[in-house]
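Re: beginner question about structure tokens

> Can someone show what the tokenized structure looks like for a real chain? I only ever see the sequence side.

Sure, here's an example I had lying around. Input first:
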Amino acid sequence: MQNPYAQQQAQNQYWDGQQYPNLNEQHQQQQQQQQFQQHQQQQFQGQQQQQQQQQQQQQHGSQFPNIFNDPTAQMGLHFSQTALNASQNYMQQNIQQFVGNNDMRYYFKVSNSYVLKKLRLIVFPYRNQTWIRQSVSAGQYATPIDDVNAPDLYIPSMSLMTYIIIWALMEGLKGDFHPEMLWQATTRTLAFYLIDVVFAKVSFYALGIDSKDSKIWDLAAYAGYKFVSILLIMLVEFCGFGRLAKYLVLCPLTFALGFFLMRSLRYVVLPNGGSGSGNGNGNLSRGIRTQFLFLYCFVVQGAFVWLLT
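And the corresponding structure tokens:
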């Protein structure tokens, strides 16, 4: 005979197991949910602390923003690097197409010494003693590698590409960069460049200047030298010296650029002013050309420098 009390206790345990089979599991789930909620709260608090630290760094840190933590700046760096690599690959693959003939090859015959002397001449042209281009034969000028006064297309092309890259970096640092803006900046810069060259060519034609002394590639070279001054102005702003320092640098660099262009184009624009004789004659023609030369070198180029900076 079994103990009735033991039978009753066994039945009670059986029914308790049937009625509450998952009490332990539910308790474990509740504990897991509480732990998960606590973990989320800790993450949220950590994110808030990081945001506060970033704000404090921006307010009390250096004047340059942290480009590595700014996704917009990283995008700007990525696109500028992509544009630079693409342009370098394109130039390497198609260099023969651009300089395949003797006329274009002339403008890319440069050396490191020539580039340094030319850059110094653009920035500080006041100590140059002669501005007349050297001739190697009748109607043929010396190449840029042999004559610092000869125009080239290497410095303008490199300066233009560098200008677009620096502009993209500055916009990325400001947090205002978008991929579409890189294409817009390139198109806008090339449009200003083309307008400058076309304006000079049409003006030279209207003034009756001999086309042999005003080749389109010569004008493209002279019009592209302004990007050297523009880059220096942008670097001052990029280094965080303020807008006042930018304008203080803009004025002397723009004047130096105008002086450089005026002395370089003087023997082309003015009749009997060097190797180019021109078609005009008399004091009236010379006075008109002098006024045009001054307006083009100082006013027109100054306006382009102002717009592009």
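Each token stands for a local structural state, so reading them left to right follows the chain. The first strand starts at residue 135 and ends at 137.
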